[in-house]
Amino acid sequence: MANHLPKEKQISVVHHLAEGNSIRATSRLCRVHRNTVMRTLVEFGAACKQFMDLSFANLHLEHLQIDEIWTFVGKKQGRLTSKERREEKLGDAYLFIALDQETKLIPAYSLGKRTSENAYKLVKQLQERLVISPDLDDQVLISTDGFNAYPPVIGSLFGDTAKHGVLIKKYRNPEVGRYAPPDLLGTERYSVHDVDDLSTICTSHVERTNLSIRTFMRRFTRLALGFSKKIENLEAAVQLHLCYYNFCWRPREKGRSGKLRDAPAMMAGITDHVWTIDELYENIMGLEQDRLAYERYERLRRKLFGQ
To answer: What is the mean pLDDT of the chain?
Structure first.
């Protein structure tokens, strides 16, 4: 179904969603029916994915940190029927992201169950978007947690063209405490491939980014009411957040100064300035309109002239 909202109203809806408002809150603030808000989210999210696919190429990044963040779709995993477990569309869902330590860019993501297949999708996307250097001094460093799918996946896709280190955190009574993290006893770092200085292995920045994800996408907030009813809605929310974060969001400098950095896409050399929400909408939807026009042209050409 076509979206007949005026352009200004669509931008307002997208902006409210990107800033962390829920579907119903956005509906109340923008005076738009919640079904229209959801339809706008799904349409704009799909366009965001296409835009990032085209924008993220030949990236020169030095240190990528990978982590996963949990949410659920429809209902908790323990309440699924046997049929729902087989279909894998409901229950536990994990967002895999890769964050560049220096620029804070998120160049790749994968959404689904916590499996080696989704880890492979993330690392494959990274491999396609990075500039791969055989020179040992220019190789990207990849830091991950102890999820056992990462070493074989990174090894098979990057081979000798990337350094890989693993950081494992040890907690006291990790099974206790739903409202606060357990006490950290220490960390263990080890090199999977070519990491000479183990102190460079780090996942703290991507774990801090998980907090921003929980803040601006309430679907990922633990012990809260927000969750997605369909995996397609969750993916659209993720695509919108990542696009807004990469091109419009300004992270703060480390320390107490509170100084704002440039947007991650600007730091990575993808754009030359921090985008406003209007610029983001114009660039993304302009590309989407070009795609739709090309599809209409192809359908007409096939109808008139055949294959």
So the answer is: 88
User: Given its phi and psi angles, is residue 63 left (phi above 0), alpha (psi -120 to 50 degrees) or beta?
Assistant: beta
Can you give the length of the chain in residues?
307
**Token pair belonging to 10:** 């669509």
Task: Judge contact between 220 and 93, C-beta under 8 A.
Answer: no
β-pairing, 63-73 with 184-193? unpaired
**Torsions phi, psi for 298 (to 5 deg):** -65, -40
- CB contact set of 190 (below 8 Å; sequence gap of 6+): 165, 166, 198
pTM of the predicted model as reported, rounded to 2 decimal places:
0.89
Q: Which domains are present in the chain?
A: 56-275 (3.30.420.10)
In terms of Cβ atoms closer than 10 Å to its own Cβ (0-12, 13-18, 19+), residue 231 is middle
pLDDT tens across 264-289, in order? 999 999 999 999 999 999 999 876 66
Please tell me the distance from the alpha carbon of residue 290 to that of residue 284, in angstroms, as a whole number. 10
Contact 69, 117 (CB under 8 A): no
Phi and psi angles of residue 237, each rounded to the nearest 5 degrees, phi first: -65, -40
